[in-house]
Structure formats: structure tokens, C-alpha cells
Amino acid sequence: MSPQPISNHLVLDSRFEEIARAEQAILDDMKKFTYADNHHFAVKLALEEALANAIKHGNNLSPNKQVTFDYRIDDHQIQLTVCDQGPGFAPDQIPDCTAEENLDRPSGRGVMLIRAYMSDVSYNDSGNCLTMIMKKNNAAPE
Asked: Which of 51, 121, 129 is CA-nearest to residue 87?
């Protein structure tokens, strides 16, 4: 019998140190389900990138702003949502970080990794809220 779905809501200060707390919460809850090691790696990597982007780019490291992190895990998929209090951005306007002219630029790699490791990725209309889904039947990259 599969465990009951798990949902959690965390409010994080705009500090990079908060990322470890969020990662630990979801990784602990993932252990209650039969997700493979590569799924654990993919969720940790995507979450780290999403939270770092929200803290740095969304909230501009402001101690007066927070990041919310919601997740839901069941036996079929994991849904993660990260929202910041910034103005948002247009994800389709991020330059391709693999293009020759952008190889030396540090921006865009986090979004590229999130898209590569998660099954589905979407943003709200203002671009300050990211929802990522990891489907159990879709193997994450090794």
C-alpha cells in the first residue's frame, strides 16, 4: 500500500542558508516513497537552483522579503512551487546559455538545469512563481 500524499509549506528568509532547510524537508519526505536516487538528486538540484534564483534575482537578497516553498509528494509525482516577492521576469527571454556567444556568461544556467532535470516546468504570468514537477515514471538524467 502506498503512503498517503505529503504536502508542506515553508516560508524562507532571503538567505542562501535557508536552502539547506528546504532541501532537507523534501528529501526527508521523499524517503517515505520509492523514488530512485536519481530523482532525489534531480529534486535537490532543481530546488537549489530555484531557491537561489528566488533569493538572489527575485528578492535581491533583501532581508525584508521572503520566499515560499510548497511541495506535494505522492507515489506518482513530486510538485514543487517556489515563489519570491520580486517583480518577476520573462523566462522565455533568458538567453541560451549553451550558445557560443553566451558560454562565458554566468546567467541562465540554473533555469537550464531545472528544465533538464524536471518533467514539467512552468511560471506564473508575472514570472515570480515557479512550479516544477518530477514524474516518477520519467527518469531523471543520471
From this structure: 129
> What is the value of pTM for the model shown?
0.88
Find residue 69's DSSP bridge partners: 10, 82
Q: What is the pLDDT of residues 5-28, one digit of tens each?
A: 999 999 999 999 999 999 999 999
| Element holding 131 (H helix, E strand) | strand 129-135
Which pLDDT tens digit goes with each residue over 109-121? 678 889 889 999 9
88 in Cβ contact with 22 (< 8 Å): no
- Alpha-carbon distance of 25 to 8, in angstroms, equals 9
Could you give the domains of the chain?
A: 6-135 (3.30.565.10)
